[in-house]
Amino acid sequence: MDASLLRAARTAALQCLGVGAGDAVLVVTDPPCVEVGTALWEAAKEAGAEAMLLWLLPRKTHGSEPPQPVAEAMRHARVCFLPTSRSLTHTVARRQASEAGARVASLPGITPEIFQRAMDVDYHEVRALTLRVGNWLEQGTEVRLTSPAGTDLCLSIAGRTPVLDTGLYLEPGSFGNLPAGEAYVAPVEGTAEGVLVVDGSMAGVTGLDAPIRIEVIDGRAGAITGGRAAMELAELLTAAGEDARTLAELGVGTNASARISGHVLEDEKVLGTVHVALGANASFGGKVQVACHLDGILRRPSMWVDGRQVMREGELFG
Asked: What is the reported pTM?
């Protein structure tokens, strides 16, 4: 096995999930992600855990339930790693595992390259930075966001509690993604106004051929212009329904090892970026439930919270 892949798996097992001797550790994977799955199993076995590796057939869509025997195994495990090509994050099986006390890390669509790169970081440092960003969002009410590409957007986060994805899932029932590193919040629906320009990457489209310019009015995406990617995004939103145009999330990346790769699992974690999503946000404090959640990554953003600048062209301070 590649040494750097195993090193990343050890970080995930030991530092992020706290795997120890005797822990019942279940790795659920499928053929596209089996290299990472096998590395996680090896790392758990090294730690003295009762390590189990379970292969699935790939699910048809993100959020499709695993077979019932898999769900039962997840519910009885102490630690679950879910490196699968289709996300198991928003499944009943995952929620039941968390409710039963399992520590769970989901790695949807993970590749060896992303795993090795974005796990090569001290997650205690990621946690400290994530808590600092989360504190700004927790105490703030109004946010302004700009970027050299043309973003100039204002929105309210009053009364909304941020989610802190630190990468350290050490308590029973704790859950998150790996790689990790972001603080995000659901803006108050109907409050966002201005222009959003996505110039890093955009979930759901086949690569970003040109920046996507989105006019935001009353908290919803209006006119969408740019190249082919802009047309693809507009078609996705139209197919998903009017609520998919809701400006649903504001997030700040806090992982210094992550790089923009075109894979949102990594892209939204990149230190020095901000991401803004359209679509659903009911699962993290918002009011919109729709079968669509699409993140757009902004390069070199500047951000103000209640008039105080906390980021200047990708540099966090304050």
From this structure: 0.90
Q: What is the pLDDT of residues 74-106, one digit of tens each?
A: 999 999 999 999 888 878 899 899 999 999 999
Distances (CA, A) of 1 to 35, 183, 265: 9, 33, 24
Rg (CA), the chain: 19
SS3 33: helix
Residue 318 pLDDT: 63
> Do residues 81 and 105 make contact, with C-beta atoms less than 8 angstroms apart?
yes
The domain segmentation of the chain, as residue ranges, is: 3-118, 123-316
**CATH number for region 3-118:** 3.40.1830.10
Contact in structure between 145 and 216 (CB atoms under 8 Å): no
Q: Beta-strand (E) ranges in the chain?
A: 24-29, 50-55, 79-82, 103-106, 142-146, 152-156, 163-165, 175-177, 182-185, 193-198, 201-202, 212-217, 220-225, 247-253, 274-279, 293-298, 302-305, 308-312, 315-316
**What angle is formed at CA 54 by the lines to CA 50 and CA 56, rounded to 5 degrees?**
165
Tokens 């029973």 label which residue?
A: 172
Asked if 156 and 228 count as a contact pair (C-beta separation under 8 A), the reply is no
Query: For 229, which DSSP code?
Result: H
φ, ψ of residue 193 to 5 degrees: the values are -145, 140
